[in-house]
Amino acid sequence: MAAKQKTKTIIVSNRLPVRIVKEENKLSFMPSEGGLATGLGSIYKQGDNIWLGWPGAVLSGKSEEDQTKKELKDQNMAPVFLTEEDIELYYEGFSNETLWPNFHYFNQFSEFKQEYWRSYQEVNQKFADQVIKNANPNDTIWIHDYQLLLLPALVREKLPEISIGFFLHIPFPSYESFRILPWRRELLVGMLGADFLGFHTYDDTRHFLSSVSRLAGVGNEHGHINYNNRQIMADALPMGIDYDKYAETAAAPETLEREVRYRTSIGSQKLILCIDRLDYSKGIPQRLKAFEKLLERNPEYREKVSMLMVVVPSRDQVGKYKELKEEIDLLVGRINGQYSRLSWTPIHYFYRSYPLHALSAFYRMAHVCLVSPMRDGMNLVCKEFIASKLDKKGVLILSEMAGASKELSDALLVNPNNREQMVEAIREALEMQEDEQVQRMIVMQNTLKRYNIYNWVDLFMNRLSVVKEEQRALTTKLLDKKSEESIQTAYKKAKKSLIFLDYDGTLKGFFGDPQAAKPDEELYEIIGGLTKNKTSTVVIISGRDKQTLASWFNLSKVDLIGEHGVWLRGHGEEWHTITNLTDVWKDDIRDVLEGYVARTPGSFVEEKDYSLVWHYRKVETGLGELRTRELTSHLKYLASNQNLQVLEGDMVVEIKSTEINKGRAARNWMKRHENADFIMAIGDDWTDEDTFKAMPKEAYTVKVGSSNSAAKFSVNSFENVRELLKGMVDL
Ligand code: GDG
Fold first, then answer.
1. How many angstroms is it from 380 CA to the middle of ligand 1?
2. Does ligand 1 come within 6 angstroms of the Cβ of 151?
3. Which of 179, 404, 491, 576 makes the best surface tag, with the fewest CB within 10 Å?
4. Pairing relation of β-strands 395-399 and 368-371?
């Protein structure tokens, strides 16, 4: 017997958690333990798991490459080698001069260069080749960040069944920003190669879904996207920190020793701490100007308060970063020049990075941590500050433009563009009573302890495997001859059967005019055959209005469920509804739909008792789909607080109360027929998915069409349904 193949996890990011230093032709390998590396350590260091990425140095020649491969292999890593040109065009170029500014709403800085784009595609392909070389179809791939947006689809192309997760560490911009990118569609399609896409905040997720809907023409239901016959999920999963590591470092002797040393040289003033990578998204000049205003306006703080500002060098080869560095240097010079005393420096400014214990001493010493980015995917500095405050004293001022602000609502939240508010917040922080500081700190510490980095990693992996399971559950098996015969035999043997049949697309094909789809002779014969048998109950369960259903099936002995479950009628009974429904919303929504009809030749509105439907089957190809995207997002906006749902069917958009669905109606009917020993449901669109989901395990469920479904079997067309039913009654 062949040994069962072991499955592994492959992490992929632009940079490996390692730094190669080349000195006199000798390579040394230093670990670079960022937050992500620590969190993912629990994954990539296990068994055969592996982390793929660029090792951080351009290597010359095969011997350096071989040495790197060997060295990294022992640490469960594998390198993707990049050339100097790759770094310039793909990394500094497309990643940092095109995507980074666009995703952070700095579009005036965004460069659109074809050579950047070409290189981005090539390097993503290089990463894909490495992944494919290392991966087996049952492995799990976790791809990180904006440098690798094309990678999910490139891997999917070669390994269609593999599990792919993607996490974006920076904001996903609003559609209005994203649409500016010339390669927006390609980028989205690249991301949609993943099965699960994680973002720091709900807003990022919402923006992504909106771009998918508008640019790729794919809608979503609660973050589930059905794309290329694969169910994908997008969700918010805010990244945490290694809380214990920061708390422990804050208590370490080395940190305390540093704190004493720093305090001795700096004096006893209150400290406002700022730590950032050099980046225009971090709002450094804006913050300096707010501090300048504070000193100008409140002379009592002079000599009492200093800012301790660490700016970590980053991307200083990129033009915009050089300019920013000069601006910061000038501002710091101006403020210090204006306000310094021999015994006091307003701003202690350091353009370098520090070891962890020094950082931790800074966190301990700070009265206030001022984190004021113009945009930030999450921001970990503010979280590290909170975790380092062992005595729970200190105040966090946090920009509402940082993802972290969604979790840390006990910080003093500011809009970094509002200088007056920033000045006031600094003043408030410096004056805040200790008991209030402690109160706020406790709430924030509890949040961060719970949602730490390990929890984040577990949740991500868990979400990915849930999506994969959902996909498996939605894989239907094409109904073959054998299964068809076994259904027919089971029906014949049954003592009492209950059969739910959708109408349009299931029993009858589609017509431009919905009224033209009336039953034909063959269909009446089939229904007649099924209902001839007294122990058989046949239910037509459709989205159609009750008048149409009644007129078509008046002479048949079928039960009818119309308008997706609003109206129900047993054979020989009167119509009734199962809920107290209201239709007061219809006037407003009808006006909106009429507006779309006016702009979309060939479309029309169908009115049912408790729902409105916009039909676009006869609209010019392309235009109907375009309007559908616009209309659904418009309607979803209107429907959000009215208990309404917007459903996209086959060439229709329908709006109705959330209380109505076919599944609920089908359950109601099953209660009436509790002792049925043969239950079957057949349907073609996703309103029938509710019916399938309501069915007991032993029921036969059949989906017409090829997309994912909760049904057990699928058939290609309504003609196949007719064949199946004919075989049941020997027609
Ligand atoms: C991106 C997103 C998102 C800083 N100076 C030193 C030092 N650091 C460490 C901090 C912190 C990290 O660097 C910076 O992380 P941030 O989250 O603040 O910002 P980005 O680098 O822009 O990260 C961001 C993040 O990805 C994660 O998803 O939160 O929004 O932009 O951990 O402590 N570390 C050391 N010395 C320093 O001088 N040792």
1. 6
2. no
3. 576
4. parallel
